[in-house]
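Can anyone check this?
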Amino acid sequence: MGLIGEVLLLPFAPVRGSFWAVRQVLAEAERQYYDPAAVRAELARLEERLEAGEIDAEEFDRLEDQLLDRLETAMERGGPGTAGGTAR
């Protein structure tokens, strides 16, 4: 960009820094949301809730489908904890 461009854009540095921070937070949230270990733990908790009678079979099926979709997406992305996956 050059020195002149940097000087002209200097007043916008806080905004650029804020966008960077937001992107980092979103990336981390997405990584945690699709973490296969976290999804498997949620599946286990869901089954416990069903066995304890906190939810009925219909609610269990609906929530299980959502979690399995997340797990499938995590496997497709090849995130940490997946067979042969690499961290992104």
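Reply from J.R.: I decoded it. The chain is about 75% helix and 0% strand.
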